[in-house]
Amino acid sequence: MKRVTWRGLLLSSALAFAAGFVDAIGFIETGGLFVSFMSGNSTQAGVELLGGEPSMAMMSVFLLLTFVLGVAAAGTLSLHARDHRPYVVAVAGIAIGSVGVLELVGMHSAWSYGLVAAAMGAINTLYLEDGRARVAITYATGTLVSLGLALAALLNGRSRTAWRRPLLLWGSLAVGALSGAAAHRFGAAASLLAATAMLVVLAVTLAVRSGTRAPGR
Protein backbone atom coordinates (compact mmCIF):
# COMPACT_ATOMS: atom_id res chain seq x y z
CA MET A 1 0.00 0.00 0.00
CA LYS A 2 2.85 2.42 0.69
CA ARG A 3 3.81 2.63 -2.98
CA VAL A 4 0.30 3.45 -4.15
CA THR A 5 -0.08 7.13 -5.02
CA TRP A 6 -3.10 9.10 -3.86
CA ARG A 7 -4.32 9.29 -7.45
CA GLY A 8 -3.97 5.52 -7.71
CA LEU A 9 -5.69 5.13 -4.35
CA LEU A 10 -8.68 7.17 -5.48
CA LEU A 11 -8.92 5.07 -8.62
CA SER A 12 -8.65 1.83 -6.64
CA SER A 13 -11.33 3.16 -4.27
CA ALA A 14 -13.63 3.78 -7.23
CA LEU A 15 -12.98 0.22 -8.37
CA ALA A 16 -13.68 -1.05 -4.84
CA PHE A 17 -16.98 0.84 -4.89
CA ALA A 18 -17.89 -0.85 -8.19
CA ALA A 19 -16.85 -4.23 -6.78
CA GLY A 20 -19.03 -3.80 -3.69
CA PHE A 21 -21.89 -2.66 -5.92
CA VAL A 22 -21.60 -5.79 -8.08
CA ASP A 23 -21.08 -8.15 -5.15
CA ALA A 24 -24.31 -7.00 -3.51
CA ILE A 25 -26.23 -7.70 -6.72
CA GLY A 26 -24.58 -11.09 -7.11
CA PHE A 27 -25.31 -11.96 -3.48
CA ILE A 28 -29.01 -11.28 -3.98
CA GLU A 29 -29.27 -13.00 -7.35
CA THR A 30 -27.41 -16.17 -6.35
CA GLY A 31 -29.38 -16.61 -3.15
CA GLY A 32 -26.64 -15.71 -0.69
CA LEU A 33 -23.33 -16.39 -2.45
CA PHE A 34 -20.58 -13.96 -3.38
CA VAL A 35 -19.03 -13.04 -6.71
CA SER A 36 -15.94 -11.47 -5.14
CA PHE A 37 -15.60 -12.69 -1.53
CA MET A 38 -14.26 -16.22 -2.03
CA SER A 39 -13.58 -16.90 1.67
CA GLY A 40 -17.33 -16.73 2.22
CA ASN A 41 -18.00 -19.07 -0.69
CA SER A 42 -15.39 -21.54 0.61
CA THR A 43 -17.13 -21.66 3.99
CA GLN A 44 -20.53 -21.93 2.31
CA ALA A 45 -19.37 -24.83 0.15
CA GLY A 46 -18.20 -26.74 3.21
CA VAL A 47 -21.41 -26.12 5.12
CA GLU A 48 -23.64 -27.04 2.20
CA LEU A 49 -21.71 -30.23 1.44
CA LEU A 50 -22.39 -31.51 4.96
CA GLY A 51 -26.11 -31.41 5.46
CA GLY A 52 -27.04 -28.48 3.29
CA GLU A 53 -28.06 -28.11 -0.33
CA PRO A 54 -25.73 -29.85 -2.83
CA SER A 55 -26.75 -27.38 -5.56
CA MET A 56 -25.56 -24.45 -3.40
CA ALA A 57 -22.29 -26.26 -2.72
CA MET A 58 -21.83 -26.76 -6.46
CA MET A 59 -22.60 -23.12 -7.15
CA SER A 60 -20.10 -22.03 -4.48
CA VAL A 61 -17.36 -24.15 -6.04
CA PHE A 62 -18.30 -22.94 -9.52
CA LEU A 63 -17.95 -19.30 -8.45
CA LEU A 64 -14.59 -20.09 -6.83
CA LEU A 65 -13.32 -21.68 -10.02
CA THR A 66 -14.48 -18.88 -12.31
CA PHE A 67 -13.00 -16.27 -9.96
CA VAL A 68 -9.60 -18.01 -10.09
CA LEU A 69 -9.83 -18.38 -13.87
CA GLY A 70 -10.51 -14.65 -14.15
CA VAL A 71 -7.41 -13.91 -12.08
CA ALA A 72 -5.32 -16.31 -14.18
CA ALA A 73 -6.51 -14.83 -17.48
CA ALA A 74 -5.86 -11.24 -16.40
CA GLY A 75 -2.54 -12.22 -14.84
CA THR A 76 -1.47 -13.77 -18.15
CA LEU A 77 -2.50 -10.60 -19.98
CA SER A 78 -0.39 -8.54 -17.55
CA LEU A 79 2.71 -10.44 -18.70
CA HIS A 80 2.17 -9.50 -22.34
CA ALA A 81 0.68 -5.98 -22.27
CA ARG A 82 2.47 -2.77 -21.37
CA ASP A 83 -0.50 -1.77 -19.24
CA HIS A 84 -3.16 -4.43 -18.98
CA ARG A 85 -5.43 -2.50 -16.63
CA PRO A 86 -7.69 -0.68 -19.15
CA TYR A 87 -8.28 -3.95 -21.02
CA VAL A 88 -9.08 -5.88 -17.84
CA VAL A 89 -11.58 -3.31 -16.59
CA ALA A 90 -13.20 -3.00 -20.04
CA VAL A 91 -13.57 -6.77 -20.44
CA ALA A 92 -14.88 -7.04 -16.87
CA GLY A 93 -17.50 -4.44 -17.76
CA ILE A 94 -18.46 -6.37 -20.90
CA ALA A 95 -18.79 -9.61 -18.91
CA ILE A 96 -21.02 -7.99 -16.31
CA GLY A 97 -23.00 -6.19 -19.00
CA SER A 98 -23.62 -9.46 -20.83
CA VAL A 99 -25.18 -10.92 -17.69
CA GLY A 100 -27.27 -7.77 -17.42
CA VAL A 101 -28.49 -8.26 -21.00
CA LEU A 102 -29.40 -11.88 -20.23
CA GLU A 103 -31.41 -10.64 -17.27
CA LEU A 104 -33.03 -7.99 -19.45
CA VAL A 105 -34.30 -10.53 -21.98
CA GLY A 106 -35.61 -12.84 -19.26
CA MET A 107 -32.83 -15.45 -19.38
CA HIS A 108 -32.02 -15.40 -15.67
CA SER A 109 -29.67 -18.07 -14.37
CA ALA A 110 -27.57 -17.96 -11.23
CA TRP A 111 -24.90 -19.87 -13.16
CA SER A 112 -24.37 -16.87 -15.45
CA TYR A 113 -22.89 -15.08 -12.42
CA GLY A 114 -19.78 -17.15 -13.00
CA LEU A 115 -18.95 -14.50 -15.61
CA VAL A 116 -19.34 -11.83 -12.95
CA ALA A 117 -17.08 -13.76 -10.56
CA ALA A 118 -14.45 -14.06 -13.30
CA ALA A 119 -14.67 -10.31 -13.86
CA MET A 120 -14.21 -9.63 -10.15
CA GLY A 121 -11.23 -11.97 -10.03
CA ALA A 122 -9.63 -10.20 -12.98
CA ILE A 123 -9.98 -6.80 -11.34
CA ASN A 124 -7.77 -7.94 -8.47
CA THR A 125 -4.79 -8.05 -10.87
CA LEU A 126 -4.78 -4.32 -11.51
CA TYR A 127 -2.07 -3.53 -8.94
CA LEU A 128 0.57 -6.25 -9.18
CA GLU A 129 4.10 -6.40 -7.87
CA ASP A 130 6.36 -9.47 -8.08
CA GLY A 131 3.38 -11.58 -9.10
CA ARG A 132 1.29 -10.55 -6.08
CA ALA A 133 -1.62 -8.15 -5.70
CA ARG A 134 -0.57 -5.01 -3.84
CA VAL A 135 -4.15 -3.79 -3.40
CA ALA A 136 -7.14 -6.02 -2.68
CA ILE A 137 -9.87 -4.46 -4.80
CA THR A 138 -12.87 -6.75 -4.37
CA TYR A 139 -12.48 -8.16 -0.86
CA ALA A 140 -11.98 -6.46 2.48
CA THR A 141 -10.23 -8.94 4.77
CA GLY A 142 -6.69 -7.92 3.83
CA THR A 143 -7.70 -4.27 3.87
CA LEU A 144 -9.12 -4.60 7.39
CA VAL A 145 -5.89 -6.30 8.55
CA SER A 146 -4.00 -3.33 7.11
CA LEU A 147 -6.39 -0.99 8.94
CA GLY A 148 -5.81 -2.79 12.23
CA LEU A 149 -2.03 -2.62 11.80
CA ALA A 150 -2.30 1.06 10.90
CA LEU A 151 -4.31 1.69 14.08
CA ALA A 152 -1.59 -0.10 16.05
CA ALA A 153 0.97 2.20 14.41
CA LEU A 154 -1.17 5.20 15.36
CA LEU A 155 -1.48 4.12 18.98
CA ASN A 156 2.25 3.53 19.19
CA GLY A 157 3.15 6.87 17.61
CA ARG A 158 4.67 5.34 14.47
CA SER A 159 2.25 6.82 11.92
CA ARG A 160 -0.63 9.24 12.19
CA THR A 161 -1.95 8.80 8.66
CA ALA A 162 -1.46 5.14 7.61
CA TRP A 163 -5.05 4.28 8.65
CA ARG A 164 -6.57 6.57 6.04
CA ARG A 165 -5.83 4.42 3.00
CA PRO A 166 -7.27 1.09 4.18
CA LEU A 167 -10.25 2.87 5.72
CA LEU A 168 -10.99 4.59 2.40
CA LEU A 169 -10.77 1.29 0.50
CA TRP A 170 -12.98 -0.56 2.96
CA GLY A 171 -15.45 2.33 3.10
CA SER A 172 -15.64 2.43 -0.69
CA LEU A 173 -16.43 -1.29 -0.83
CA ALA A 174 -19.05 -1.02 1.92
CA VAL A 175 -20.76 2.01 0.39
CA GLY A 176 -20.66 0.28 -2.99
CA ALA A 177 -22.43 -2.74 -1.50
CA LEU A 178 -25.09 -0.51 0.02
CA SER A 179 -25.55 1.27 -3.29
CA GLY A 180 -25.72 -2.03 -5.19
CA ALA A 181 -28.42 -3.34 -2.87
CA ALA A 182 -30.38 -0.12 -3.35
CA ALA A 183 -29.94 -0.23 -7.15
CA HIS A 184 -31.13 -3.84 -7.24
CA ARG A 185 -34.59 -2.59 -6.27
CA PHE A 186 -34.83 -1.37 -9.86
CA GLY A 187 -34.02 -4.87 -11.13
CA ALA A 188 -30.96 -7.02 -11.66
CA ALA A 189 -30.62 -5.98 -15.31
CA ALA A 190 -30.68 -2.25 -14.62
CA SER A 191 -28.25 -2.52 -11.71
CA LEU A 192 -25.78 -4.69 -13.64
CA LEU A 193 -25.88 -2.33 -16.61
CA ALA A 194 -25.22 0.57 -14.22
CA ALA A 195 -22.16 -1.33 -12.95
CA THR A 196 -21.07 -1.82 -16.56
CA ALA A 197 -21.28 1.93 -17.15
CA MET A 198 -19.09 2.55 -14.08
CA LEU A 199 -16.46 0.12 -15.29
CA VAL A 200 -16.45 1.57 -18.81
CA VAL A 201 -15.78 5.02 -17.36
CA LEU A 202 -12.99 3.60 -15.19
CA ALA A 203 -11.50 1.74 -18.17
CA VAL A 204 -11.41 4.98 -20.17
CA THR A 205 -9.81 6.77 -17.21
CA LEU A 206 -7.14 4.08 -16.96
CA ALA A 207 -6.52 4.21 -20.71
CA VAL A 208 -6.06 7.98 -20.60
CA ARG A 209 -3.65 7.70 -17.66
CA SER A 210 -1.74 4.96 -19.43
CA GLY A 211 -1.51 7.08 -22.56
CA THR A 212 -0.17 10.11 -20.72
CA ARG A 213 2.61 7.95 -19.27
CA ALA A 214 3.57 6.39 -22.61
CA PRO A 215 7.24 6.90 -23.68
CA GLY A 216 7.81 9.85 -25.91
CA ARG A 217 4.56 11.56 -25.05
TrEMBL record:
What keywords were assigned to this record?
A: Membrane, Signal, Transmembrane, Transmembrane helix
* Transmembrane regions listed in the UniProt entry: 56-75, 87-111, 136-155, 189-208
In the UniProt record, does the keyword Ribonucleoprotein occur? no
The family database entries (InterPro entries) matched by this protein are listed as: DUF1275
Q: Which domain of life is it from?
A: Bacteria
Pfam families in the record, alphabetically? Answer: DUF1275
The leader peptide range reads 1-18
The molecule here is called DUF1275 family protein
The root-end lineage is:
Bacteria, Bacillati, Actinomycetota, Actinomycetes, Micrococcales
